[in-house]
UniProtKB/TrEMBL annotation:
<dbReference type="GO" id="GO:0030246">
    <property type="term" value="F:carbohydrate binding"/>
</dbReference>
<dbReference type="Pfam" id="PF07748">
    <property type="entry name" value="Glyco_hydro_38C"/>
</dbReference>
<dbReference type="GO" id="GO:0006013">
    <property type="term" value="P:mannose metabolic process"/>
</dbReference>
<dbReference type="InterPro" id="IPR011682">
    <property type="entry name" value="Glyco_hydro_38_C"/>
</dbReference>
<protein>
    <recommendedName>
        <fullName>Alpha-mannosidase</fullName>
    </recommendedName>
</protein>
<dbReference type="InterPro" id="IPR041147">
    <property type="entry name" value="GH38_C"/>
</dbReference>
<dbReference type="InterPro" id="IPR011013">
    <property type="entry name" value="Gal_mutarotase_sf_dom"/>
</dbReference>
<feature type="domain" description="Glycosyl hydrolase family 38 C-terminal">
    <location>
        <begin position="46"/>
        <end position="206"/>
    </location>
</feature>
<feature type="domain" description="Glycosyl hydrolases family 38 C-terminal">
    <location>
        <begin position="283"/>
        <end position="359"/>
    </location>
</feature>
<dbReference type="GO" id="GO:0004559">
    <property type="term" value="F:alpha-mannosidase activity"/>
</dbReference>
<dbReference type="Pfam" id="PF17677">
    <property type="entry name" value="Glyco_hydro38C2"/>
</dbReference>
<dbReference type="GO" id="GO:0009313">
    <property type="term" value="P:oligosaccharide catabolic process"/>
</dbReference>
Length: 363
């Protein structure tokens, strides 16, 4: 599914004019780490090593990107010295775990080109007309290969489809038998075309609507991400089946949720294992656990993630004194009324596809 020589590569698109063409016209990255693209850019690996431990391997790669500046046609008249034009420094950590199916990436980039889009590309042999993007309390289906879209005769668009979409925490590209989930933090821009998954990590621009067609040209000097070092974290999760079978949302939540630690008072002892609550089945996810705004009780908010009905069971650490369904404002509301069953520490209810439920619990 993932060819070892093209599994991941940084892809650079420079927005300077190239003999009348820019990266949007070319429909290809100007340069990738695997060598594809046009002639005026080059990645060079400066250092490479592997850190080993019993639990994981960390592959470290240090890379520089060299590129000419416009006008590139002068290359034919004046032979450039490429190594003098270093426009990006990149350090990547690729983390492979012993017992976790994800592969995590930590990429640091320092960009010196004023107009650039830097993306990560994951190549696959998957063929599918759509892919799935995580959204707030749900999942959205997107079309692939939209950059090749051509309007039908007589069809008019205010803005033609570009194939660039947002996602929240994750996106998944699969054919039903196998798939690849790309998990991310930060910029949510992504695209799938020709079987490749692109994730944007950095945009640097000096002017909005520089062509003067889509709106007035507006200089934005603060959007030039120059000489700043940024860290980007993302991950891939190859799997069998589709995103539902692979529980892609669960791996995305785990990747995006940091572990919080607390220091206990001296002499205080707690049991080795203790949980405030447990929720079944696995496609029901807890999104909020906090004290109620009125100070009376605890708020539990959870939602269904697969788009399926779910017989949900919540097990608390002790039997609650009272449980009621409330709305997002933590108020009782006839519009969110729901039948609840209680047996000791357990609370049982039925949930609709992608439904959000908020409970106020007195313990």
């Amino acid at each position: 599914m993932l060819p070892h020589d093209k599994m991941t590569a940084l892809s650079v698109g420079l927005q300077d004019q190239l003999d009348g063409m820019d990266w949007q016209t070319l429909k290809i990255p100007l340069k990738t780490e695997t060598g594809e693209g046009v002639y005026f850019g080059s990645f060079r690996v400066e250092n490479f090593w592997i850190d080993k431990s019993p639990l994981r391997r960390v592959i470290n790669v240090e890379t520089n990107y060299f590129s000419l500046r416009w006008p590139y046609r002068l290359k034919e008249e004046i032979e450039p010295i490429m190594w003098r034009h270093k426009f990006m420094m990149c350090t990547k950590k690729i983390i492979v775990y012993r017992d976790i199916p994800r592969i995590d990436f930590i990429t640091e980039i320092e960009d010196k080109h004023p107009k650039a889009r830097i993306r990560v590309r994951f190549s696959t042999d998957i063929k599918s007309a759509d892919y799935s993007c995580g959204s707030q309390f749900g999942v959205v289906s997107r079309l692939t290969d939209q950059c090749y879209y051509k309007p039908e005769p007589g069809e008019e668009w205010e803005e033609e489809p570009r194939g660039i979409f947002p996602s929240l925490k994750w996106l998944d590209y699969s054919d039903g038998k196998k798939g690849l989930t790309v998990i991310h933090r930060g910029i949510p821009e992504n695209e799938v075309r020709d079987g490749d998954v692109y994730l944007t990590v950095l945009r640097s621009v000096s002017m909005l609507s520089s062509d003067g067609i889509s709106g007035p040209a507006i200089p934005v000097p603060d959007a030039r991400e120059l000489n700043k070092r940024y860290e980007f974290r993302y991950s891939v999760y190859p799997h069998e089946g589709d995103w539902r079978e692979a529980s892609s949302y669960k791996h995305a939540i785990e990747f995006n949720t940091d572990l919080d630690t607390l220091q206990l008072p001296k002499g205080m002892k707690l049991p080795l294992n203790r949980s405030f609550l447990k929720i079944d089945p696995g496609n029901v996810v807890l999104s909020a656990l906090k004290r109620a705004e009125d100070g009376d009780g605890v708020i539990l908010r959870f939602y269904e993630t697969k788009g399926e009905e779910a017989d949900t069971e919540i097990t608390l650490f002790r039997e609650p004194k009272a449980v009621k369904v409330v709305n997002m404002l933590e108020e009782e509301d006839e519009g969110v009324k729901k039948e609840l069953k209680r047996e000791g520490e357990r609370i049982m209810l039925k949930m609709k596809p992608f439904e959000i439920v908020t409970l106020k619990v007195e313990v």
